[in-house]
Amino acid sequence: MDLSIIIVNYNGANFLDECIRSIFLTEPQVSFEVIVIDNASQDNSVAILENLPHPIRIIKNNENIGFAAANNQGAREAIGLRLFLLNNDTVVTPDAIDRLIEYFDSTPDLGVVSPMLLNADGSVQGHGSGLLTWLYRTSTPRFVAFVTGAAMMIRASVYAEVGGFDEAYFFYNEDVDLCKTLRKRGYKIAYCPDAKIFHFGGLSTSTRKAASVIEGYRGGLYLCQKHYGPLVYAIYSKAVLLDVIARWMVCVIKGIWNPSFQTLAAAYVEIMGIARRGEITRRRHFHAG
Q1: Is 98 in the same domain as 225?
Q2: Which of 16, 23, 146, 195 could disulfide-link 115, Cβ–Cβ 3.0 to 4.6 Å?
Q3: Nearest-5° angle of CA 124, CA 126, CA 129?
Q4: Residue 91 belongs to a domain
Q5: Range of the domain at 258
Q6: Using CA atoms, how far apart are residues 96 and 181, in angstroms rounded to an integer?
Q7: Structural domain count, the chain
Q8: Does 150 lie in the same domain as 35?
């Protein structure tokens, strides 16, 4: 088998059908399998998966084990020489998979390659956020520091070599961690804009639930400690506290008129506790939808 496409799903019923159909409609020119790991979804995701007219393998978990662990679970079941880790809220465009494979096989020492991600309106998404998003607004392939786990292709042997995603991450930051680990081992990380995939989850972070906000901060703290050492971590954790305190104050004020901000304020209180106590590797069950 040339390729194993691994999709982790949790309450993704609104996206699953279009995502999986798009894979088969593109008719990749390689042998492939699709493996979907359902993390105990509470919607009708499983029913949708079981009624799709395409041959897929479904792994049903009894609990939400997290994005990192579920991808590793799928990788252990995969038989493809390459793995394509793909979010459930994506739509694959024609030739995207073939172009990724072509670039992958023509580039020495490549650890991971990722496509151009597009918003629903066709605009380009940056991988991550901040000042470096301009790197992903290019028409030619280039090497980058990291790519998002929404769509990344990697050789199965290399994924196994580094142990896959670090399962101390539940959701968020595991993709940055993997790219850093690969670069330390001499592998390159590539961005291939010739391949395009729509990614609807990247439209806005304004609708993120409290649990995902907590996991984002916790994972960031763990990433810093793991890769940058105690001094940088000490500085970063203090900066996180200042940032979170400011956000908490804003949410408390807004919560007077809008109760939804009260939940977010409580999440920031939990993040403060995580930063103070250093409980940065604790994994939690993710019920944020």
Answers
A1: no
A2: 195
A3: 145
A4: yes
A5: 210-277
A6: 26
A7: 2
A8: yes
Residue 255 placed within a domain? yes
Q: Is there a domain that residue 285 lies in? A: no
**Tell me, what CATH number does 41's domain have?**
3.90.550.10
Which of residues 142, 169, 202 is at a domain's end?
Answer: 202
30 and 159 co-located in one domain: yes
State the pTM of this model: 0.90
